[in-house]
Design goal:
The protein is an alpha/beta fold. It has 16 helices and twelve strands. The protein has helices at residues 53-70, 81-93, 120-125, 137-140, 163-169, 178-188, 203-216, 236-250, 264-272, 285-288, 328-338, 341-351, 358-367, 370-383, 393-410, 416-433, and strands at residues 42-49, 72-79, 101-105, 142-143, 146-147, 150-155, 158-162, 278-281, 299-302, 312-313, 315-321, 386-387. Strand 4 and strand 5 (146-147) form a beta hairpin. Helix 7 packs across helix 8 (236-250). The chain is globular, with a radius of gyration of 22 Å. The chain starts with 41 loop residues before the first strand and ends with a helix.
Length: 437
């Protein structure tokens, strides 16, 4: 994996540069050196969310392709999502240009409105239009009239289940409701070697999980949906959703006791290690990789379960430029390259992620086979009922308070009503101070 060290200053080195390849956009390409001169190499440094080995292999491959075409070197490092967001904001607050390209997401974009380089002119110059991407994604990545990121991957999960265990137990079909999920998990539960289900329980992943459960149970975060308004998550629908989640851990005991400390990484590792009968997962890449998975031929995929509704979270990761980057033109060339249709098609073929570019997504749907096709079908079925959380900046301040209280409930420090009430009280203070309620 081609990485860089954030703690080391001055990592932009001067190297001999060969003939520049084909420029990928209308932005300024690396200047040709004069006679007897050496060109200063352009090195882009990026921070992205953590991914598995297949993700690293894919990034290495397209980085080499990009370098061949442009003469620009792309280096990257990865961090778990929450640490990534905090690190990027720390860099911006310090006025640092050490990192040029940021991985970002709907969930946190409100925190980054004053931290990212506006992409409006770049996008207009290269004909990058909202109609080419998942509906609403440009709006979600726009703040104060500035386009802050280009959509990258369409962020949906599906229900993964062990076909070998289902067959052995005589279970003919995956669950479709909360009650069926609990009953199926209980039938297959054999701790500590095998749990009926896996679910995340910490940090931003916990908030993402709660959004699914809240909406599936007929609730919402705010009284007026996506508009600034008083909190609604502590109403009966939200409390029931968190109670159901708590019961998975402490009453039914069909998930590991350590669930309140699990994020995406822990969940994915336990799933591919064969320690669960069911789990929500993002994509099949890790499960299909024999170097990291013991269940390669023993799983299938279905749409997410529902309860009172089938509403689920349908959002996007994006790619953005640090406001303080000294080389935004070159950074845009990389972003334009990786979010375009050909590279997005390659992303799906290599890693299994759903492209946010609609042309690439449609091409993936037409060509996918086997388990990859099942994953697309199941996850996109959720997109038909897709929803997002509020995207105004103050809600980004509220999110850590809410997930912190969820963690306390799941770890048996508070009741669901107590935790959600406290988060609502703190949220009301933030919204009132901002003049929003």
């Amino acid at each position: 994996m081609r990485t860089f060290d954030l703690s080391r200053r001055g990592f932009l080195s001067t190297l001999a540069l060969g003939t520049a390849g084909l420029a990928l956009s209308s932005c300024v390409a690396p200047a040709a050196p004069g006679a007897g001169e050496e060109a200063e190499a352009i090195v882009l440094n990026a921070l992205y969310p953590s991914g598995g080995p297949l993700w690293g292999e894919y990034l290495d491959k397209i980085s080499d392709d990009f370098n061949t075409q442009t003469g620009i070197e792309h280096r990257y490092s990865t961090l778990p999502f929450v640490q990534l967001m905090d690190k990027q904001l720390t860099l911006v607050a310090a006025g640092s240009a050490d990192v040029d390209i940021f991985g970002t997401h709907y969930a946190q974009i409100g925190r980054f409105i004053e931290a990212l380089f506006p992409l409006n002119d770049f996008a207009a110059g290269d004909g990058v239009e909202s109609a080419d991407y998942v509906e609403g994604s440009f709006d979600a990545f726009t703040g104060n009239g500035n386009l802050l990121a280009i959509p990258y991957t369409f962020d949906l999960r599906a229900l993964y289940y062990r076909t070998d265990l289902f067959d052995a137990a005589g279970i003919e079909a995956p669950p479709t409701t909360w009650d069926e999920l609990v009953a199926t998990a209980q039938a297959l539960n054999d701790p500590p070697d095998l749990y009926g289900y896996l679910i995340v329980g910490k940090g931003d992943p916990a908030l993402r999980e709660y959004s699914d459960l809240l909406w599936e149970n007929g609730g919402d975060f705010l009284e007026n949906g996506l508009e600034p308004s008083p909190p609604a998550w502590n109403q009966p629908e939200g409390v029931e959703a968190l109670q159901w989640w708590y019961d998975l851990i402490h009453t039914h005991e069909v998930v590991p006791a350590g669930t309140p400390s699990y994020g995406w990484e822990e969940n994915g590792q336990l799933w591919t290690a064969g320690q669960a009968a069911m789990s929500k997962q993002w994509g099949p890449g890790g499960s299909m990789d024999p170097d990291q998975s013991v269940i390669v031929d023993n799983f299938s995929i279905a749409p997410l379960v529902g309860n009172k509704t089938n509403i689920t979270t349908a959002v996007c990761h994006g790619r953005a430029i640090n406001l303080h980057s000294a080389q935004p033109d070159a950074a845009w060339q990389w972003i334009h390259y990786i979010t375009g249709q050909p590279t997005m098609v390659d992303l799906h073929a290599s890693v299994g992620s759903r492209p946010a570019h609609l042309g690439a997504l449609n091409e993936a749907i037409e060509t996918a086979e086997g388990i990859v096709a099942l994953n697309l079908q199941a996850s996109l079925a959720g997109a038909a009922n897709g929803y997002t959380w509020p995207l105004f900046p103050e809600f980004s301040e509220i999110q850590p308070i809410l997930w912190g209280e969820i963690e306390k409930v799941l770890s048996d420090q508070k009741s669901p009503q107590e935790g959600l009430d406290f988060a609502a009280q703190e949220a009301e203070k933030i919204l009132a101070n901002a003049g929003l309620i």
